[in-house]
Specification:
The structure is a single chain. The chain is built from 12 helices and no strands. The chain has one domain. The protein starts with a helix and ends in a 7-residue tail after the last helix. By secondary structure, it is mainly alpha-helical.
Length: 219
């Protein structure tokens, strides 16, 4: 490292050491890092690494004895599955539902497309807007929440071709192979059902590119 870049880092470290703010506990650091790595691995289609990192995150959170912390992790895991159009309920969260907060329960039901109007009011602002009107998806700035919202809109039976197109563009721009393949397959099916064979074939050529690189399944 260039010496002139080292001084600011040392100054920051010294200020942190002299401050009265408590250091972040190791379990928080470990859980956050593992959850981020797990999500990235899952979206890229690396199931082995994803499972290892989910287990590390779960172990770190279990050390606190806080079921709501574990529930939050399971919501993140379920959200990644919804973004990737993976079938099935959020079973691991459901096992913790009795100790979850109302906001967590609302988000879980939102992910399955079953949130009530009262629960929608408890959602984060971006997801609340998408749950109210699927056309608000494009206004969600961050790619993963946008993709999660698209999956939730689909599960609620309110997705359109534009929803799938936005999800495809979002997953493609991030290089997230798992959700990209899932949404391409969905959109190709929609195009064929509508008789748009040119679009269907174009989408299938994109699918072939992903599958030739050993892309994951989408079930």
């Amino acid at each position: 490292m260039n010496p002139r870049h080292l001084a600011p880092l040392l100054a920051t470290a010294l200020l942190a050491a002299c401050s009265n703010q408590p250091q972040q506990p190791d379990w928080q650091i470990n859980a956050h890092g593992a959850a981020e790595r797990a999500t990235a691995a899952y979206l890229s289609g690396n199931d082995r690494v994803a499972e290892q990192e989910w287990q590390r995150a779960r172990a770190a959170l279990s050390s606190t004895g806080r079921p709501q912390a574990l529930a939050q992790l399971e919501l993140l895991r379920c959200a990644a599955r919804v973004a990737s159009l993976a079938a099935g309920p959020c079973s691991a969260f459901d096992a913790l539902r009795g100790d979850a907060s109302p906001e967590q329960a609302a988000y879980a039901d939102y992910l399955t497309g079953q949130a009530s109007a009262q629960q929608v009011a408890l959602l984060p602002p971006a997801q609340r807007a998408a749950a109210t009107n699927g056309q608000n998806l494009a206004a969600i700035a961050e790619p993963l929440p946008r993709l999660v919202a698209a999956g939730a809109v689909l599960r609620a039976g309110r997705a359109s071709a534009a929803t799938a197109d936005l999800a495809i563009d979002t997953a493609s721009s991030q290089g997230w192979r798992r959700p990209l393949l899932a949404w391409l397959l969905l959109r190709a099916g929609q195009a064929r059902a509508a008789g748009d064979m040119a679009l269907a074939q174009a989408l299938e050529r994109r699918i072939a590119i992903i599958e030739s690189a050993g892309a994951p399944g989408v079930n």
